[in-house]
Design goal:
The complex is a heterodimer. By secondary structure, chain A is α/β, with parallel strands linked by helices. Chain A has 4 domains: 130 residues, 3-Layer(aba) Sandwich (Rossmann fold); 227 residues, FAD/NAD(P)-binding domain; 167 residues, 3-Layer(bba) Sandwich (FAD/NAD(P)-binding domain), CATH 3.50.50.60; 57 residues, Alpha-Beta Plaits, CATH 3.30.70.20. In chain A, 28% of the residues lie in helices and 23% in strands. Chain A has 18 helices and 34 strands. In chain A, the strands form 12 sheets. Chain A has a 5-stranded parallel sheet, covered by helices on one side. Chain A has a 5-stranded parallel sheet with strand order 20-27-21-22-23. Chain A is globular. In chain B, strand 6 and strand 7 form a beta hairpin. The longest helix of chain B has 13 residues. The chains are: A alpha/beta, B alpha/beta. Chains A and B meet through helix 17 of A and helix 4 and helix 10 of B.
């Protein structure tokens, strides 16, 4: 045991020391664990004094390995690696034992916690002896950035980067950028016209010299890692030549096929088979939807082709795959609205005058299907009373436990618009009002003054079955008014459901493509919920806007800008240091069975046909260990996670476990008296 | 011939195939005979344990020990031969890793006795008589070795110098080992004398990236002769099995069953094989994966641990609470002979 190991146990104030007998664990480690030259406890090891303690010990006592028992390595591994490096010790000769998240925060018994800490320290001490010095590899960062999603968050991120002079690919699956914001009429609490503040940004994106706009396109596949991703993007056939089309709109005007627009108009309006979703679309180049086009249906028509003044229609176009090299990727994929049909007692889809929030947004919009008039489903009658139902699919353990965050303000905005446009009576049934940001509370007060009626209670049912003559022909909202302590039946002409903000239905697949995961509720998981909400556990992949959690416009914009700032910082630095934790294949042991070949999520394994062995590309390898586990010949070793290291750690963890009940093999056969025959 | 070495060949819980395999080195057996006096080999010579007991410790230069340790007598012989041998070789899969006899570690003595002596279709034993360790007949005490609940490997019983894998070890590999012994070019004690890679390395079939939609059993398809058998859905253990046999089974269109044991550096062959196969199943749907496995691999233990159960991490199915052990005392040593 040639290594001299320093063991440092952190109190973390009372975070650890409140539950763990830190002094006892430290004393025990110093006296019992082989190789430990010095064992100390300290109030806050992450403080500069704590780090100095480790640094000085390395230099004065000639430590060759360091074990820090403290918080999660996610938080402070870098700190302690730096402390080692400052003392001239290779930073990979450090091992952390997580005795806070894994022990003190999840254990009540002081005795049990202290025993567990001993085991974790013993495991770390056993493991660290097998550590090898490793050096991070510098890798150049490609200055191009891929932004997925052309909503307001993606637009903001793209513009920030492009304005800084860095090239951006902006991918949007719909024919135009703009996202949900483009569907809205007004924005809360200032009541700005959404289009008025959004469309300047959209056209800036469309004309920016550093933005390559890829609409009607979807991300297919991503390989590589930070600094050097390769992304495959499917450019869906538009059937309109982008370079020739002038966006005159004649084709749209002349197209004889009209279909319900389920996406942009939320089912409230129509579009043509060749269309742009809205007049200010960017780009203004239309697409042909082959599912509704008469030519694709029965090989007739081609009116658009005949009438196009620039011959831009091309019915033979095929999907194309574009491969781009980028250094970083920002996901700003946005949100989907809760399917209100999932709550049948609210009647959406069954009772005509129950609307979703998005439908209502389109109705309010001056360029929407009703020209901005608030009317019942018949398209004519103005409602005399409207009830807005909050928390439809949010704050509900049957659907989504979380608060969608924006619906309270959305409801206030809608209340204002209804009052302004119709003079109808407006009720809002809420669980709690949460107007909790700048100028939001003031807006709530304004609506109280404007005469919007607030009923505190979760709606039980929306029905058209009347019990009394005044209820005849109305929708009745059944709700317990918890302030009055009474059941109420509110007859209204129109009901608007504030559906929950949900993660995109295909977010998990998108996450898999770039190597990030989703939380239980579906949102993309950030690196740290408080201190790093933009980054993810995969380096070089950032998230912005509602794909990270429900957000209003200012928050989405802030995140878009923040993600761009992170990326810009990385690009201007020029290189990133890649963790040297990579897999290597022992070519003597590799039999070329090729089991590992299609497992690598980063496509880092190549099969060499001539040598008949597989090889890991260290630049692409992220050290995930998938191939290491899968290799049936044990030919693949993960640096910093070798079998030797892992087994030593397990042995250490089980220091107090009894043997397996097997008698130990006798080293020297016991020499007993000769057997009598 | 005073400087001839002394060779012992012994069998414990094994089938006798290892002895036959030694003879399969053909006329080279004459070279063995020229170099060694075979002092103990119950399979081919009339030698008794008592002859060995009388030898001074360390008399035998090389002992090739095949078979696992299933009874107290086998355990005694292992300890005795260890005492009398300078170099003890665990010869073949049984001695190295338990092999087919080791598969009985999914059960225990009571169940084995019940199956063999009572419930087997060909047995008529209404009194349920099963072998006893001691029986008194006409005033005389008859004894049988204790039948253990668990088959152990030689290495789990006594310290072993070298391991020679295979069921049985291939004749050329036996000859390689004999040459190494004769020329004194042995690796570090405790190591396996064999290749450092797996059967795929010796297999001539074309290998591609693997995606398996269904596992087939050997009687279900006649495989294509040129493509990797695993890619055709046959559960070939080749990727996880040490090379040395020259891919004998795959060359005759039959999947490797894993008899050469795990590759160097692998502790648990079955676990390796399982993670490898889990990696090539071409489905993301848990129900479909379940179906692929349950339809294609009806006997997982017998498939993944056919040869290595006794030497696996778990060693046996579940611990027998009061497993009986019976250590016979060894004879008093005479002075070791140079």
């Amino acid at each position: 045991m040639a290594e001299r190991i320093g063991v440092y146990v952190c109190h973390c104030g009372s975070n650890i020391a409140g539950t763990v007998d830190v002094e006892e664990a430290t004393r025990w480690a110093g006296e019992n664990l082989p190789g430990v030259a010095i064992a100390r406890d300290y109030k806050f090891l992450c403080s500069s004094l704590g780090q100095a303690l480790i640094r000085d010990d390395i230099q004065e006592h000639g430590l060759t390995r360091v074990v820090v028992a403290a918080c999660s390595p996610h938080l402070h591994e870098k700190t302690f690696r730096r402390a080692c490096a400052n003392a001239g010790l290779n930073s990979f000769l450090l091992q952390m034992a997580n005795i806070r998240e894994h022990v003190s925060w999840v254990t009540r018994s002081k005795e049990a916690a202290t025993e567990k800490v001993k085991s974790l320290i013993a495991g770390a001490v056993a493991r660290v002896q097998h550590h090898r010095p490793l050096e991070p590899t510098p890798v150049p960062v490609n200055p191009h950035t891929l932004v997925i999603g052309g909503g307001i968050a993606g637009i903001q991120a793209a513009l920030e980067l492009a304005d800084a002079g860095y090239p951006v690919y902006l991918v949007e699956r719909e024919p135009s950028i703009g996202g949900h914001m483009a569907q809205f009429d007004k924005t809360f609490p200032t009541l700005d016209c959404a289009a008025c503040i959004l469309t300047p940004k959209m056209s800036e994106v469309g004309q920016h010299e550093h933005i390559k706009l890829l609409t009607w396109s979807e991300l297919e596949e991503v390989s590589g890692s930070i600094g050097n991703f390769k992304a495959r993007i499917r450019r869906k056939a538009r059937y309109v030549k982008e370079e020739t089309c002038t966006g005159c709109g004649l084709c749209i005007e002349k197209c004889p096929r009209k279909v319900v627009d389920e996406v942009f108009e939320a089912g409230m309006g129509y579009r043509k088979a060749i269309y742009t979703p809205f007049p200010q679309a960017v780009p203004k180049i239309p697409v042909i939807d082959p599912k509704s086009c008469i030519w694709f249906e029965r090989q007739r028509c081609r009116a658009c082709e005949k009438l196009c003044p620039t011959n831009a229609i091309d019915f033979d176009q095929q999907d194309e795959i574009l491969e781009v090299d980028v250094g970083n990727i920002i996901l700003a994929t946005g949100w989907d609205l809760f399917d209100c049909r999932r709550i049948p007692q609210y009647g959406y889809g069954r009772l005509a005058n129950v609307f979703t929030s998005l439908e209502f947004e389109r109705m309010c919009n001056a360029s929407g299907p009703t020209g901005g008039r608030v009317v019942l489903r018949d398209g004519v009658t103005e409602p005399e009373s409207v009830c807005i139902v909050h928390c439809v699919g949010s704050r509900d353990s049957h659907y989504n436990p979380y608060c969608s965050g924006i619906c309270c303000m959305l409801s206030l905005k809608m209340g204002h618009l209804i009052l302004e446009k119709t003079g109808a009576k407006v009720y809002a049934c809420y669980i709690d009002m949460r107007p909790n940001k700048k100028d939001y509370e003031e807006f709530y007060q304004r609506l109280l003054e404007e005469g919007m009626l607030f009923v505190r209670g979760k709606v039980a049912e929306v029905t058209d079955v009347a019990r009394t003559p005044p209820e005849e022909g109305k929708l009745i909202v059944q709700v317990e008014d918890t302030l009055l302590g009474k059941q109420r039946r509110i007859p209204v002409d129109m009901v608007v459901l504030m559906g929950a903000i949900e993660q995109r239905r295909d977010a998990r697949e998108t996450g898999l493509k770039v190597g990030i995961s989703c939380s239980m509720a579906g949102w993309f998981i950030e690196r740290h919920p408080k201190l790093d909400p933009i980054a993810t556990m995969t380096e070089g992949i950032f998230i912005a806007g509602a794909c990270q959690g429900p957000k209003d416009i200012p928050d989405a914009v802030a995140q878009g800008a923040a993600a761009a700032a992170r990326v810009a910082g990385m690009i201007s630095k020029g290189t990133v240091m890649i963790e040297p934790v990579v897999a290597t294949i022992d070519e003597e042991k590799c039999s070329g069975c090729r089991i590992c070949n299609n497992l690598c999520p980063f496509n880092a394994i190549d099969f060499l046909d001539d040598e008949k062995v597989s090889r890991v590309n260290a630049v692409l390898c992220k050290g995930c260990g998938t191939c290491v586990a899968a290799c049936p010949a044990a030919a693949i070793t993960g640096a910093h996670f070798s079998t030797e290291q892992v087994e030593a750690e397990i042995d250490g963890l089980l220091w107090d476990a009894g043997g397996d009940g097997e008698p130990a093999p006798t080293d020297q056969p016991e020499l007993a008296p000769a057997a009598t025959e | 011939m005073a400087d001839k070495g002394k060779l012992a060949i012994y069998w414990a819980a094994s089938c006798g195939g290892c002895e036959i395999s030694i003879l399969a080195i053909n006329e080279k057996i004459l070279d063995v005979a020229a170099a060694f006096d075979i002092v103990f080999c119950p399979c081919i010579m009339d030698t008794k344990a008592r002859d060995v007991e009388k030898m001074p410790d360390g008399t035998i230069d090389v002992c090739l020990f095949n078979g696992g340790i299933r009874t107290s007598e086998q355990e005694y012989m292992a300890r005795l031969l260890r005492q009398k041998s300078k170099v003890l070789v665990a010869f073949g899969s049984c001695a190295q890793e338990g092999c087919i006899p080791g598969l009985a570690n999914v059960t225990d003595r009571a169940e084995i006795f019940d199956a063999v002596y009572c419930t087997s279709a060909s047995v008529d034993n209404p009194g349920r008589a099963v072998p006893q360790t001691e029986t008194r007949v006409n005033g005389f005490l008859l004894s049988l070795p204790v039948f253990y609940d668990t088959v152990r490997t030689l290495g789990q019983t006594v310290p072993v110098d070298y391991y020679l894998p295979g069921c049985p070890p291939e004749a050329p590999r036996i000859w390689d080992a004999i040459v190494a012994i004769l020329e004194g070019k042995l690796p570090a004690p405790g190591s396996v004398i064999g290749a450092q890679t797996t059967v795929c390395d010796e297999c001539p079939r074309q290998r591609n990236e693997k995606k398996v939609k269904a596992f087939k059993r050997t009687w279900q398809i006649i495989p294509d002769e040129d493509t990797c058998l695993l890619e055709q859905g046959l559960l070939c253990c080749g990727p996880a099995t040490r090379a040395g046999c020259d891919a004998r089974c795959p060359r005759v269109n039959s999947p490797c069953i894993g008899c050469y044991g795990p590759n160097a550096g692998v502790q648990d062959q079955g676990a390796r094989l399982m993670t490898a196969l889990a990696s090539v199943i071409d489905s993301q749907d848990p129900a479909e994966i379940d179906r692929i496995i349950s339809e294609g691999i009806p006997d997982p233990v017998g498939t993944f641990y056919r040869f290595s159960l006794a030497n696996s991490l778990l060693r046996r199915a579940a611990k027998v609470p009061d497993e009986q052990r019976h250590e016979l005392p060894l004879p008093k040593a005479a002075g070791a002979q140079e």
